[in-house]
Amino acid sequence: MTYQNDLIIRTAKGEPTERTPVWLMRQAGRILKEYRELRSTLSGFKELVETPHLAAEVTIQPVDLLNVDAAIIFSDILVVPEAMGLTYEMIEKKGPHFPETIETENDLNKLIIPDPYEGLEYTLEAIKITKKELDGRVPIIGFAGAPWTIFSYMIEGGGSKTFSKAKKMLYVNPTLSHKLLEMITQTTIKYLKAQTECGAEIVQLFDSWAGILSEEQYKEFALPYISKICDSIDEVPVTVFAKGAYFMRKEMGKLNCRTIGLDWNMDPILSRELIGPEKTLQGNLDPCVLYSDFKTIEQKTKEMLEKFKGHSHIANLGHGVYPDISPDAVRCFIDTVKAF
Ligand code: CP3
Questions:
Q1: Measured from the CA of 323, which atom of ligand 1 is nearest?
Q2: Taking a C-beta distance cutoff of 8 angstroms, is the pair 243, 211 a contact?
Q3: Domain with 124 in it
Q4: Residue 6 is among the residues annotated as catalytic for this protein
Q5: Binding site membership of 320 for ligand 1 (Cβ less than 6 Å)
Q6: Tell me, what's the pLDDT at 30?
Q7: What is the DSSP letter of 322?
Q8: How far apart, in Å, are the Cα atoms of 164 and each of 78, 170, 172?
């Protein structure tokens, strides 16, 4: 495949490029009225995720409408626990809910490590369609949740402020915890490999609830599984984004991956010192900056870019873009990066 724009791949690999590539976490869906229009014709979020040609359409929307340098496949991290045997519901204005959760060894024994071409074929098909329709305009980013974040949904049954049920399981039943984390890891490796076979050019692991764990717990229950996934994927560059895990940056630098994502609390200069010169860094503008006027957005974006200067950098926000942020503010951020 020859790309018209392969900036993000070259940057991820640490090669010098003409400019900094830019995309936004959660760019597909959420902020675009074109997304909401399509979404309103359907029964819900899951129908969109599970209908490959529609998922492909929503994946390409931000490439057309925002001019980003990569497309992230429209899906969710929760498709993995579902394929393992725990179905989820996406409740309007509330978020995900799992009617059944994992509490005992018996619950665990009902789970499977699925063949992604059977349990997750809809997302793989969406990647294939997107690949064909993009025709090399920009690369496709595949993704999955990191094992700890997926584990926390499977134990907790939904979102939480403290994730205390999931953390409790780590203390009370470490054996069961490790068994489940290992199953999620095996599923994720197979799933990410399948994504690359179908056309994903970069893959990202989202450890959204990394910051909930103590350093000690992260070292025992999160990092080893991320490390295993990184060691298993050599097809494409891997990005690890562990939100809130500022205490793990030195260790992140030693992972067998190409890019480390930073949230807005991780200073780019200190992070570079801790992570080392080799890795590409991704991030890290506070999404809330995009609520301010264009002049402020431009200024804050430039300040961020200055801090990353001199090493490989993929511009992004420090977490996903919020649903009520205006697409024009997002365009201002993107245009500022491109002009820098
Ligand atoms: O980045 C993208 O635009 C690609 C698609 C994508 C979605 N979810 C679509 C989605 C990606 C990469 C995700 C990842 C995801 N999902 C994460 C990790 C990233 C992060 O933000 O930390 C997490 C924790 C989830 C779980 C999840 N899915 C929650 C908590 C919710 C409800 C609240 C919300 O909007 O985030 C979802 C639903 C969801 N996933 C929506 C979209 C577009 C909104 C649902 C709708 O349209 O009704």
A1: 35
A2: yes
A3: 7-209+228-244+254-339
A4: no
A5: yes
A6: 86
A7: P
A8: 19, 10, 12
Which atom from ligand 1 is nearest to the alpha carbon of 39? 47
Instruction: Report DSSP letters for 116-130, one per residue.
Output: HHHHSHHHHHHHHHH
What integer pLDDT is reported at residue 51 of this predicted model?
Answer: 98
| Model confidence, pTM | 0.97
Residue nearest to atom 40 of ligand 1 (CA): 76
Neighbouring C-beta atoms of residue 47, cutoff 10 Å: 14
- Residue 167 inside a domain? The answer is yes
Q: Is the pLDDT of residue 3 over 90?
A: no
Residue 249 lies in a domain: no
Question: How many CA within 13 A on the CB side of residue 176?
Answer: 20
| Chain segment 179-218, per-residue pLDDT in tens | 999 999 999 999 999 999 999 999 999 999 999 999 999 9
Does residue 98 line the site of ligand 1, with CB under 6 A? no
- Domain-located, residue 215: no
Region 260-284 average pLDDT: 98
240 - beta bridge partners?
205, 260
211 touches ligand 1 (CB under 6 Å): no
pLDDT digits (tens, 9 = 90+) for 127-182: 999 999 999 999 999 999 999 999 999 999 999 999 999 999 999 999 999 999 99
Q: Which residue has the CA at smallest separation from atom 44 of ligand 1?
A: 30
Task: Domain count for the chain, please give it.
Answer: 1
**In-domain check, residue 72:** yes
Q: The CATH number of the domain where 41 resides is what?
A: 3.20.20.210
Residue 275 CA to residue 248 CA, distance in Å, equals 9
User: pLDDT tens digit string along 54-82?
Assistant: 999 999 999 999 999 999 999 999 999 99
Cα 45 to middle of ligand 1, angstroms: 10
pLDDT in tens, 242-256: 999 999 999 999 999
Q: Whose CA is nearest to atom 43 of ligand 1?
A: 29
Q: From the CA of 16, how far away is ligand 1's center (Å)?
A: 32
